[in-house]
């Protein structure tokens, strides 16, 4: 038994999250009482438990005997009275305050006075729930992540009313279950959702505005930023109704337009297209999609103009792909693709106009500015129809290239650019000429939010990084990312994004600017 001071735990609501939580508790050896509203919902809950543990049996991770034991520890009921002898009850019903308050009123009546009552709310105020009970000192938030059996993070939320012992006991329980608790105060979205949902909603906004396609945005974030899933795949996993509820709740507190749910999300929810659980959301779940474009064909001849780390990185990619690289004016004439990789806008412009003179018509000219100024460089060449933007979000990894087209780019040149860059062995995604293209436009505002959260003292660097790595499977946390990518680069990209959108929350967080000025990493 791994429950510390808890031995019998109730779970109210056996949807995706509640069933996952019940499974985690039962796997930890605890006696679990699962309660649902009616027999139909209870049967669906049993189905979730059987499927999830059955999948582990199929993969050889669990024996059939162990599965039987786990399922045998979960008593299922439609009667709240069966929760009467639990030491802890975790509520996981849909995210409606009125519904949660009704459930807590019932729990208050049937549970022992010393029982701790927890809510798995994603974003509602735990305090709002606590004040309507007769035991506000014993109310905590215990926020698991989807899929609960897999994700290691659990946010433990204590309100100003919670007795410290209650939150600490729940944190001990969570540790005993092999998860990592992060204990924080009661703010909308807590740590992980507050950082995650601005990003998810911005991705939906990108789709809405036609900046890039669903598949390209997903591929960009998966391949270019190393995330386990792209934003649309993840929203479909979370459930679009939940996404909408979380965004509405965060917006109500933040009043930050970036949390005002994108219309496409609201439309899908109204249409009942809620993601994986209904078979369709941003994706139809019988289709496989989301992979970046790849192309076969001979390695292109690439001209590189300019010197510096970017030029070196592109030359290394060409080398890996067996592409011939040319950098003399005479050599540029026979290139399929010419990449400007100069350091600084003035140098880029001068080198580019010389290169364009040398290039034969129809050669793809790629410029590497990522601040929404591809069109300016394109116009300066005198051949704007041949020009695209090229950005490697992680040049060292050499996995993904973003190709931005302007209103002046010839569609055939855009297609050729995609094909040629793909032949360098890179995944390729397309977007319009806007600051940050896809990856930087999505990751730097998220990193800025993390710096702002750190600056505001809501959570420390370890908790913020743990929230994103253990809660959302990110390879590294945002504070570590800022130090890796460079606070100075973050400030530069954020200033470009802010200049383009005038979105107040995109102005670099004061803490970030301070670290740049001090020349000191965040950690
Ligand atoms: N239930 C149980 N186990 C599952 C599972 C599920 N639904 N889905 C995957 N798994 C397990 C698999 O059994 C597998 O384990 P083993 O290797 O031990 O067999 C492991 O997870 C990996 O699964 P897959 O190989 O099938 O797939 P994957 O490598 O693509 O990983 C993933 C799937 C773990 C979900 C991964 O893509 C990931 O981490 N995605 C990010 C998920 C995320 O961000 N979650 C948080 C959402 S926000 C939230 O939940 C908070 C909120 O309030 C809304």
Automatic annotation (TrEMBL):
Residues passing through the membrane, by range: none
Domain 3-hydroxyacyl-CoA dehydrogenase C-terminal: 189-284, 436-520
Pathway note: Lipid metabolism; butanoate metabolism
Keywords for this protein: Oxidoreductase
Any one Pfam family match given in the protein's UniProt record, by short name: 3HCDH_N
GO MF term list: 3-hydroxybutyryl-CoA dehydrogenase activity; NAD+ binding
Family the entry assigns: Belongs to the 3-hydroxyacyl-CoA dehydrogenase family.
Protein name: 3-hydroxybutyryl-CoA dehydrogenase
Organism: Actinomadura darangshiensis
Taxonomic path: Bacteria, Bacillati, Actinomycetota, Actinomycetes, Streptosporangiales
């Amino acid at each position: 038994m791994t429950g510390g001071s808890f031995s019998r735990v109730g779970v109210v609501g056996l949807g995706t999250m509640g069933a996952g939580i019940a499974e985690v508790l039962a796997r930890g050896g605890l006696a679990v009482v699962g309660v649902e509203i009616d027999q139909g919902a209870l049967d669906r809950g049993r189905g979730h438990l059987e499927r999830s543990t059955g999948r582990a049996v199929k993969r050889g991770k669990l024996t059939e005997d162990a599965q039987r034991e786990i399922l045998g520890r979960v008593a299922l009921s439609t009667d709240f009275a069966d929760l009467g002898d639990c030491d802890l009850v975790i509520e996981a019903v849909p995210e409606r305050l009125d519904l949660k308050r009704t459930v807590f009123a019932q729990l208050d009546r049937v549970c022992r006075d010393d029982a701790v009552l927890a809510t798995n709310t994603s974003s509602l105020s735990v305090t709002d729930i606590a004040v309507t009970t007769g035991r506000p000192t014993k109310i905590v938030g215990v926020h698991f992540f989807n899929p609960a059996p897999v994700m290691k993070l659990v946010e433990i939320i204590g309100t100003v009313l919670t007795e410290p012992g209650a939150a600490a006991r729940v944190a001990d329980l969570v540790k005993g279950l092999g998860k990592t608790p992060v204990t924080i105060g009661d703010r909308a979205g807590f740590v992980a959702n507050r950082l995650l949902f601005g990003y998810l909603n911005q991705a939906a906004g990108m789709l809405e505005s036609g900046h890039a396609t669903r598949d390209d945005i997903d591929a960009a974030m998966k391949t270019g930023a190393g995330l386990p899933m792209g934003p649309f795949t993840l929203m479909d996993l979370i459930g679009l109704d939940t996404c909408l509820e979380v965004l509405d709740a965060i917006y109500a507190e933040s009043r930050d337009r970036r949390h005002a749910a994108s219309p496409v999300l609201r439309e899908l929810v109204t249409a009942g297209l809620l993601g994986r659980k209904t078979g369709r959301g941003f994706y139809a779940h019988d289709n496989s999609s989301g992979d970046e474009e790849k192309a076969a064909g001979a390695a292109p001849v690439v001209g590189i103009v300019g010197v510096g780390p970017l030029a070196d990185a592109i030359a290394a990619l060409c080398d890996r792909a067996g592409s011939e690289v040319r950098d003399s004016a005479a050599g540029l004439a026979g290139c399929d693709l010419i990449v400007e990789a100069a350091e600084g806008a003035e140098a880029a412009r001068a080198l580019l106009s010389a290169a364009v003179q040398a290039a034969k018509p129809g050669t793809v000219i790629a410029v590497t500015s990522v601040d929404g100024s591809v069109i300016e460089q394109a116009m300066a060449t005198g051949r704007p129809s041949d020009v695209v933007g090229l950005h490697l979000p992680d040049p060292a990894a050499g996995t993904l290239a973003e190709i931005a087209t302007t209103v002046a780019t010839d569609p055939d040149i855009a297609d050729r650019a995609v094909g040629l860059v793909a032949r360098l062995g890179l995944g390729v995604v397309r977007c319009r000429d806007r600051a940050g293209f896809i990856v930087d436009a999505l990751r730097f505002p998220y990193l800025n939010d993390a710096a702002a959260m750190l600056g505001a003292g809501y959570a420390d660097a370890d908790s913020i990084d743990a929230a994103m790595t253990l809660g959302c499977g990110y390879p590294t946390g945002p504070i570590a990312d800022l130090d890796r990518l460079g606070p100075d680069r973050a400030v530069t990209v954020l200033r470009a994004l802010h200049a383009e959108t005038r979105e107040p929350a995109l102005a670099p967080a004061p803490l970030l600017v301070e670290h740049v000025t001090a020349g000191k990493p965040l950690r």
